[in-house]
Design brief:
The structure is a homodimer. The first copy, chain A, is an alpha/beta fold. Chain A contains 8 helices and 5 strands. Chain A has a single domain, classed as Rossmann fold (3-Layer(aba) Sandwich), CATH 3.40.50. In chain A, α2 links the parallel β2 and β3.
């Protein structure tokens, strides 16, 4: 008798965090449908990485959804606003940076809800992190809890049936080093992942945006060699 | 001295409810930015109506966002599933119908959040209604309250500043007749609005889907002549 495997939606950006989450969900024996968003981000190279890691980690399906956030604007990741470079940890921790994209995780998770209902996959995995992160409000535990509560009032499948939505934010309380160590134990090839907000035309990481700096420090703290090719060492 | 007027986002479908809400928000002296969604709905005629009522009711701007819900599927409004006809009120009240679109209001409100933050317009108006409605879970007061709570944890402007998001669902507890009476007092021209889920190629209402039946009954109960041109009387 074959047993039906649990289905999950995994938000996959092609970055270090969400790739680790995908590996974790696979290790928990979930059949994973990965969901990526083309939102006009300047670091579009990450979309290729998302497709590649989905294949490599055995996703059952990979979906790329076009979301017009550039039309809305308001972020250095979609607009012609400079991405901050070489900020120290104190500055990073001091406030919400210009790379914040208004309502991004809310829009992404809302699409995930629709897919979750249609695919009967009420487990949604997202790689948000509230420790070594950029200070975005929609990466905090209280936000994730509030979204889950709202989701269970929104969906027909949750309201009528016995299938509550669960938002799995496995990395919430992990440091970047712990994330890298966990992924390394699961044989994640981090050379395939992309973190940089401001890569060059060949997709090479700048080495100095917040995302690159957090990534570099994570590998250092984990004591694991960083396989990333940075244009600035 | 000119006073800055309060800015609002109004979700505008071109239907009876959201048009009434737009008139109400204007009557409360809000400067209104209307937001419509092209989500592959078969009743695309409503998008023209949304643009027309936005102009007529003096919206400061009208935005149409393309959202790919048809790719996701799962609804008679986007898929090749028959729209139910001639259902009586008891049947309508018995459950969530096939015209339910997974996570639709959550996706729409999420986009509204992004616009609200960029336009500094934290008041969001939505025409959901929990009385004469089609039984959708994301039209209930507990859903709206949970969304508002989540929104105030998601947005930089709400977390950092003094500008909480408010979801105004003015019609929640009104009957369709009361909505029509309120709109009529505000001189809404309901002939411009579109409710039908399954119009003909010229945009004429079918007269027998749930949405048409609720609309017809609303005008009857309100004692106001129905200006709609139905193909079936």
């Amino acid at each position: 008798m074959t047993q039906t495997r649990k289905q999950a939606i995994v938000l996959t950006s092609g970055g270090l965090d969400s790739t680790t989450v995908l590996a974790m969900a696979r290790a928990e024996n979930f059949e994973c449908h990965t969901l990526s968003f083309d939102y006009g981000q300047r670091h579009r190279h990450e979309l290729k990485a998302a497709a590649a890691v989905s294949r490599k980690l055995g996703a059952a399906g990979h979906y790329e959804v076009k979301v017009d956030l550039a039309q809305i604007g308001g972020s250095a990741l979609t607009d012609n606003i400079a991405v901050p470079k070489n900020r120290d940890q104190k500055t990073m921790a001091a406030g919400i940076p210009v790379t914040y994209v208004p309502a991004r995780n809310t829009i992404f998770l809302s699409y995930a809800l629709a897919w979750a209902e249609v695919l009967a996959a009420p487990d949604i995995f997202i790689g948000v992190n509230a420790i070594d992160y950029s200070g975005y409000p929609d990466c905090r535990p209280e936000y994730i809890a509030a979204f889950e509560k709202m989701a269970n009032l929104a969906l027909k499948s949750a309201v009528e049936g016995n299938t509550p939505v669960r938002i799995h934010a496995l990395l919430l309380h992990m440091t970047k080093a712990e994330i890298i160590q966990a992924g390394t134990r699961l044989h994640v090839d981090y050379a395939m992942t992309h973190s940089c907000y401001d890569p060059d035309s060949r997709g090479r990481a700048c080495g100095s945006c917040d995302s690159c700096l957090l990534r570099k420090k994570g590998f250092q703290d984990a004591g694991i060699p960083d396989p990333t090719c940075y244009t600035i060492a």
